[in-house]
Amino acid sequence: MTPSVVAHRIFWLTLSLILVVIGIGAFAAWGVVSYTASPSFCASCHLMQTRYVSWQRSPHWGKATCIQCHSEPGIWGELKAHLNGTRYLYVMLTGEKSGPILRAAVESATCAHCHPAESLPEATRAQQIRHRAHLALGIECTACHAGLVHGTLYGHQAKPAREACVACHAKESPVLGAIGASAFRPPQAPAEDSAGEL
């Protein structure tokens, strides 16, 4: 065998070995990312167990996972969420607790992925909501719906209290603050008389 044939074989053998190692590494990384994106992984930490139970009892269970809500849309948002999640591990290993242990914000863009603005109700029987107006002003969904999934262990849908509306709107209008929660009730339709006419 000539030296050039040996060098050629060594080159291809080395390249093949490098590609195999890269493939195994990529597969292992995909497995780690997939596992750490699962709700059961999140529940494996003591701090997250009550949040996991509240998620299981919420309307989001079976429809959205932790990573789907607690990451910005796209692969970079998911990667950022994984990096933020490592803070918990860092705190447990070092004991350093300056700032919040978890950084699990939910962005309005993430909510809109499943709940587009066009599909949101503008009023209910109990109050006017005007979702699109709030979103147009840059108000985050969590300003009103902060406890939507993790607000209770009992499993009922957490809805914003009228007091939250009053507290926010009173900053801009002292009149609304004075009127209170009744300002957020929708106008009542006039009652029909016994003949069925208005």
Structure at a glance:
This protein has helices at residues 3-36, 39-43, 49-56, 66-69, 75-94, 108-114, 131-136, 162-172, 174-179. It is mainly α and 198 residues long.
Q: CATH superfamily, please? A: Di-heme elbow motif domain
Number of helices: 9
> In percent, how much strand structure appears in the residues?
under 5%
Overall geometric form: elongated
How many separate structural domains? 1
Explain what the structure shows.
The chain contains 9 helices and no strands. The chain has helices spanning 3-36, 39-43, 49-56, 66-69, 75-94, 108-114, 131-136, 162-172, 174-179. The longest helix has 34 residues, at 3-36. It starts with a helix and ends in a 19-residue tail after the last helix. Mean pLDDT is 78; it is low at 189-198.
List the helices and strands and how they pair.
Layout: H1 3-36, H2 39-43, H3 49-56, H4 66-69, H5 75-94, H6 108-114, H7 131-136, H8 162-172, H9 174-179
Structural descriptors:
Multiheme cytochrome fold, 198 residues, single chain, 9 helices, mainly alpha
